[in-house]
Amino acid sequence: MDDNARRRRFVSGVLPILLAAVLWGSTGTAASFAPPEASALSIGSANMGIGGLVLLAAAGRSVLPLLHGGPRVWRTIVAGAVAVAVYPLAYYKSMDLTGIATGTVVTVGSTPAFTKLCEVIGERALPHARWVGASAVSTLGVALVVLGQRHPDEGAHGVWETVAGVALGLLAGASYAVYSYSGARLIRQGASSRPVMGVMFGVGGLLLIPVLAATGGPLFESGSGLLVAGYLALVPMAFAYFLFGRGLAHIAAGTAATLILIEPVTAAVLSVAVAGEHLDPLGWGGIILVGAGLLILDNSK
Question: Is it the case that residue 76 has pLDDT exceeding 90?
C-alpha cells in the first residue's frame, strides 16, 4: 500500500472509527452523572434506543431503497437490529454484575475475535498474521488498562454473579460483532452508510423502547438524568455511529473491531481526569500497548 493510499484509508476509514470509539469511551463518565436510582438497563436502552431513532430520522428518505432490497437484505437488517438491541442490555448488565473493569475488558476485548469469526463464516476470509498480532497486542493493552484502573465504588461480587456477568460480556461482544459485520456487508453490497446505520439502528432502537419505558422513570425524573440521556443518545450514539458507518465503508469490519479497542483507553483516561479515579502504572503501560497495536494494524493491508 503506497503512502497516498494509506493516507486516504486513514482519513476515510481509520480516523472516523477512532473518533467514534473515543466518543463511546465517554459513556461511562457521562453515565456517572445520572441519578443514582437510574438502572444500567435504563441508561443502555436510552443510549441506543433514542439514539437509534435519531439515526433513522436523520437518514430520512434515503432508507427507502434499502427497505425495498428484498428478503436477503432484510435478513441482514434484522440480524443487525437484534444485535443492536441486545448489545447495550448485555453490556451494561455485565458491568452491573461484575464491575466496570471486568465487564469492559470481556466485552471490548472479545469483540475483534467475534467480528473476525463473522467474516470467516460469512466471507471465508481467514485472518492474516498482522491482524492477529495487532489484535493480540491491543487486547492485552486493554486488559492492563482495566486491571490498572481502580473503581472505589465496586464491591465484591459473588461467583455466580461474576460467571453470569462474564457470559453477558461475551454476549455483548458477539452482538457488537454481528451488527458491525451486518452493516459492513450491506455497505459492501452497494448501500450507503447513512441509510444502513439509520435502518439497522432505527429498528434496533424500536426494539429497545419497551425496555426504556419499563425502566426509564428515574432517569427522566431529574434534569441531570435528562441531560445524561440526551448526551448519550445524540453524541456517543447518533453522531458516533454516523462516523462508524462512514468508516465501515472503507475498512473491513474486523479491522474496525480492533480499532475500537481505543474505547476503554478513552474511558480510563476520562475516569481519571473527570471522575477522580486512579490509573496505576500497569494501566498506563496498557495504553502504550493499545497504541502499538493500532500502529501495527494501520500498517497492515
Answer: yes
Q: Which residue type occupies 186?
A: L
Which pTM does this prediction carry? 0.79
Find cell 476509514 and name the residue: 13
Neighbouring C-beta atoms of residue 5, cutoff 10 Å: 9
* 146 Cβ contact list (under 8 Å, min separation 6): 100, 101, 102, 104, 105, 264, 268, 283, 286
* Cα distances (Å, whole numbers) of residue 283 to 95, 152, 288: 19, 16, 9
Report the Cα 295 to chain-centroid distance in Å.
20
CB neighbour list of residue 152: distance below 8 Å, 6 or more residues apart: 277
Main-chain dihedrals φ then ψ at residue 289, nearest 5 degrees: -65, -40
Give pLDDT tens digits for 93-152: 887 787 666 677 778 777 877 887 888 887 776 767 777 787 788 778 777 776 776 555
Give the domain ranges of the chain: 3-127+154-250
Count the Cβ atoms, other than its own, within 10 Å of residue 71: 7
- Residues with Cβ within 8 Å of 165's Cβ and at least 6 positions away in sequence, in order, are 93, 94, 95, 96, 97, 98, 99, 102, 103, 106, 157
Query: H/E/C letters for each residue in 162-217?
Result: HHHHHHHHHHHHHHHHHHHHHHHHHHHCCCCHHHHHHHHHHHHHHHHHHHHHHHCH
Q: What is the overall mean pLDDT for the chain?
A: 83
pLDDT on residue 80:
95
User: Running DSSP on this structure, what letter comes out for residue 68?
Assistant: T
**d(C-alpha 10, C-alpha 2), whole Å:** 12
